[in-house]
Automatic annotation (TrEMBL):
Its EC number is 3.5.4.32. This is 8-oxoguanine deaminase. Pfam families: Amidohydro_1. InterPro entries: Amidohydro-rel, Metal-dep_hydrolase_composite, Metal_Hydrolase, MTA/SAH_deaminase.
Amino acid sequence: MRLWIKDPIAILAEGAERGVVVEDGVIVELVARGNEPALPVDQTFDASNHVITPGLVNTHHHFFQTLTRAHPSAINKELFPWLTSLYPIWARNVTPETFRMATRLALTELLMSGCTAAADHHYLFPAGLDEAVDIQVEEATRIGIRMTVTRGSMNLSEKDGGLPPDSVVQDEDTILADCERVLSRYHDTSEGSFIQVALAPCAPFTVTKRLMRDSVALAEKYDCRLHTHLGETKDEDDYCEHHFNCRPVDYLEECGWLNDRVWLAHGIHFTDEEVKRLGHACVGVCHCPTSNMVLASGQCRTKELEAAGVTVGLGVDGSASNDNSNLMEGVRHALMINRLTYDAASVTHFDVFRWATEGSAKCLGRNDIGAIAVGKQADMSFYTLDELRFSGSGDPLAALVLCGAHSADRVMIAGAWKVMNGLPVHIDVERLRYEHGEAAKRFLESLQ
């Protein structure tokens, strides 16, 4: 079936003023101003009430943390004390059941904000949660969203001088064996794939050098991406200098991680020389503006990173430091914090949309999503300007960012509608809210 998505208010694509034609889940034609589709179409969707963007791509998250949003033990703290407050709570309460519910809610929330592809960095493995990756694949498949499922890991705990409790880490052999298992079972590198797997040791202060290096070898064997936290806080710099006698980027290089398979979360505290090294290695950086502001971690040097050749993507980060899973809100926050870092003319709405679409897709190693162009997957988000916040706005695309668009009216993935009239087509949102809320109650019980 050939579908003409016709006459949008505005669309984030050149030469598509009259919309796009979709066939078999792929964009096959851009219809320029004054034109009609070159070939007959089977169906038309009237987009005259919509502003269309490529589907947003989230490149860093921690789905399980939706269960501890605004948790009384962790609010008003920076990263390390925030982590030490929450680790024991997560260790006691994250089970396969609560993890499934957290994943379902995070994916649904992302989808409703206009996100069509997401990466989750899951690194917490208390007893009984050995099949975390399997759970996330099941939930992403059920909802119909694209996902890069990262097999995260931690093998340095409190007894080793690390931050996490002993009960949430695994030994290296267990980790590496499961990495191979999930890569063999789920990693799909084909065009238009819905599930891919990446390897994601958590951070320098929670994993060994051997695990970092062996992860590189597995990534090369299975042709997958590599992900970790780096350069998020000055505490991390101090930790690396104390334990490894070097800065985080030096440590990354020692472990064989300065290569184009890698994308890093946060990437705030880099020197000029380190920015150049990262660009030379074609490393990606996921900018997480909301989380960075909540935890007072610092300001990512997005412009310098891009100028050096680093791909910049966008992520919401964990829902206990961001406190929601809304990537469209993250787009607005990226504009605001980067204008504060630079100036109003240097960072535009086109920049932040690029980070959330093309840049994020490239971080995940994908060239089939992230743009509205012929040959790309038909992943698009449709926003209306009907709310009071948009009244009086002149530039529709800029208005999505400046006036604070929060949810998509429609979302299409591979040519199929996944959100219609603001609601996901396969999820009972009211029931999800109740079930997730009930699951989250146990995370507060220890405070009572």
